Sequence to fold (271 residues):
Amino acid sequence: MSVVRCSVYLVVLSFLWTFIGGDAAVCVFNTSCILPCSFKPGADVVIHWIHVNGKEITVHSYYHGGDQLAYQDQRFKARTSLFQDQISKGDATLQLSRVELQDQGRYKCYTSTIAGNHESFININVEAPISEVHIQQDENSITCSSEGIYPEPKLTWSTSPPSTNTFKKPTTVQQTDQQLYTISSSLIRVHGVTDLTYSCTVSAGTNQKTTLLKESKSFLQSLWNCPQNEFRHQIFTGLFHLCLCYCVLSFQLLSAVKAVKQRSPVLTRKT
Ligand SMILES: *[C@@H]1O[C@H](CO)[C@@H](O)[C@H](O)[C@H]1NC(C)=O
Fold:
């Protein structure tokens, strides 16, 4: 009885190993990634790296003592290499460069020599870490954003000291053709005077990044200062125009007075 149960477990375990098991590795988007694989050294080495996501796609092949890339999928073109001097020592490790998000999933390393063949699996997850979190201050809002992220990021705000003077607009998350995420969120300031430090944290997968913004001056002051500059400008332009008007008018007035003065003796002479 226990023998039957044991063999059932074994069958289930080997099934799980084939379809789920294997090592896991995290690759970073747009960098190189190492997919380890080893085998017992022997003559007539054959290596096939296969991406098994529903269908099987050839990533890299090696036989007859060299790379064989005629059946390589276009997606992997010029992005794969084996460590040639290590193959005879039983190392079939693959280097995958310029990692894309589509590279995620399960890989099979098939190796064969005259001594026999072997299969192993590795699961690849791709992450695009948060490189920068930008905070931008506008007249009455503060916007935090970050781009080029995978997996889907989250964004949180906090202020120091804690404040209820802000209203948070809904966070927007967009995905590019390359499956990378862009995230953005704005805080609207509701009341006047605030002298806060704003903190925006973006997190995705295992990494997170925070940027702080210390408000340079109170909101009221910034409201006051901004139009004041424009106002000042308008006053100066106004004064300049007034001066110009005054000059032109007084010049014409002067000429008119002169003309009248020149004409008036003629008039007196006539009478
Ligand atoms: C990938 O990296 C290269 C340089 O290593 C850079 O020029 C390029 O902009 C990067 N691409 C993306 C989509 O980040």
Observations:
- The CA atoms of residues 250 and 256 lie 10 Å apart.
- The longest strand covers residues 116-127.
